[in-house]
Amino acid sequence: MEIKSAGIVGLGSYLPKRILTNGDLEKMVETNDEWIKTRTGISERRIAAEDETTSDLAFHAAEAALEDAGISAEELDLIIVASASPDMLFPATACILQEKLGIRGIPSFDLEAACAGFIYGLAVGAQFIATGLAKNVLVVGAETLSRIINWEDRNTCVLFGDGAGAAVLQPVERGQGILSIHLGADGAGEDLLKVPAGGASLPASIDTVQQGLHYMHMQGSEVFKFAVRVMGEAAEQGLIKAGLSKEDVTLVVPHQANMRIVSAAMRRLHLPMEKAYLNLDRYGNMSSASVPVALDEAYREKRIKHGDVIVMVGFGAGLTWGSIVMKWCKQ
Ligand code: UT7
Question: Is 255 one of the annotated active-site residues of the chain?
Fold first, then answer.
């Protein structure tokens, strides 16, 4: 069997219109613009409208990516949606998205790897292309984290935002597209970042709601320590697997959790901050949507051109991490 390379041939993103600034948050919890900016780098984030769901955000991003790829939804062979805030426990948001795209029949499933979800999604999509099972794969990272955040908890509510990014994968020439995939997880850290209630281990009840267990809970400084270590390490491993060195890297597109985490990763890679694409000041941490939205913006701003080497790297709840090194093959 011929193993085929997979490359990104279409990109799209969607950000809800409503902007929530650090100033707005000052009126909601005991925080201030200076603390948020210096500790995280975030100035504002987007919040989905009341009638907007994760699948709606995913739909807009998917439409843009399909248009960019120059294909119709009918030509898709597979849909993968990465999300930590899916529309429902089930059915999969990918199936709801399929319906919104007006198509039928193709396999569609969700993938849960939290903030590393889009990178995991690309990795899975690439396997379908490698084996010839699919020719056009839609991978989406979409979140309405505003629905699972406790807006009274300053430890978390200042960090996150809503948004979606999508990519279309197709078979490309050998040596182009995805050059390496590096994924990992450590379940020993399962407690550090989670939504405790609403699943099968702690079903939703009046009690769980009263205790706020249906919201995101995070041990921020522990996650921070893990992230500082793993982001640089994962990017480095990706480059080693691709047979490349830091000199070959045009742009790092990191998960946009915290400016200090990104700078630690760049220090570890011995690369200047100018080589990292950052938009977390405008959107905060959008979990699985962070990397595809950043990639889409970097591409549209012409920070990426044909032949460039891109390193996507992320980490998240689980704990999970991953990196993908790509030779950019899209014109
Ligand atoms: O995608 C993965 C998702 N998670 C993450 O990426 C989170 C990773 N962690 C982080 O980014 C950082 O740990 C935070 C930004 C969450 C926190 O920064 P930190 O430098 O680790 O601060 P800290 O948690 O050690 O808290 C320092 C102080 C505490 O006060 P005391 O105990 O020193 O008096 C906090 O209560 O800052 C306080 N604090 C705040 N103050 C103002 C915590 N949140 C806030 C806030 N505004 N929003």
Answer: yes
